[in-house]
Amino acid sequence: MKRRVILVNFTLFLAVFLPGARRAAAQSAKASDVLFTALANKDSLLFNIAFNTCKVEALDRVLSKDFVFYHDNGYDGLTMDQSRANFVENIQRFCANRNNRMRREIVKGSLQAFAVNNDEAIQTGIQRLYLAVSGKQEKQVEESKFSRTWKKKDGEWKMTTEMDFQVKTHFNNDPAARYVPMPYNPSEEPLYEAIARMDSLYFDTYNTCNLPKMDAMTADTIEFYHDRTGVNTSREEMIASIKRNICGKVTREIVPGSIEVYPIHHYGAVEIGYHKFHNNQEPVGTPSKASKFIIIWKQVGDTWKMSRVVSLH
Q: Where does the secretion signal sit in this chain (predicted)?
């Protein structure tokens, strides 16, 4: 009897409440679709104005009077903000130079819209920007994720804020986008000369297999880090490995002009540079790829010893 009552009650629940739940879900989905379409259309209008028609007066249909644009500049830069006036000025400045053409695309499936309430919504997506200068082939110059706040005013959605987050700034078709450091200038010329001389002396022992002199120039606490073979913290093992694998077989050459030297207060100095290793079994002139190294030199009185090495290939 109890089981029959439960079934009847559950059936009654389905009959009474489920249709209402389905209608509510359907209405919610419909409202979500309407919001998505409305904001997607606004997005399309914004970039059509900015990159095609240049009719900035039409931006009144997209941007609120107090619109603010925030653009981050990756890990290496601060986030910058622009008022609506500055944002519109930048569009006008770009439009004035017709030698440049910009194209923007949204990553397929990335556009989203979220209702905060009836009069406020959030729109997010991932975009890619492409620039063509003076008719040349276009290059990708940005990939970013944007997050916008929209508010409905007088029945029309207006964007109040946009935040663009840099997702990717290095592109295969634009090697120049990589960070390029300023030219190196020795902060302490005597120190630079001293470490450059130590580098020459040390690797002369390497090339001539003068292992006793190399041993004397190596700190007891040596740590040698190699990106392929791992870590060696034994001076004896390192010298033995050089005798076994290097002597008479390999010659090291410093890449001219590549050495940089920086002081380490109350310790010594760090040397950074590029060098090449030549296999003596190969014909003279066989190309050798340059690789980066970092050496930390410890100073004890007037004596310099190699204490840390990082070798990268």
A: 1-24
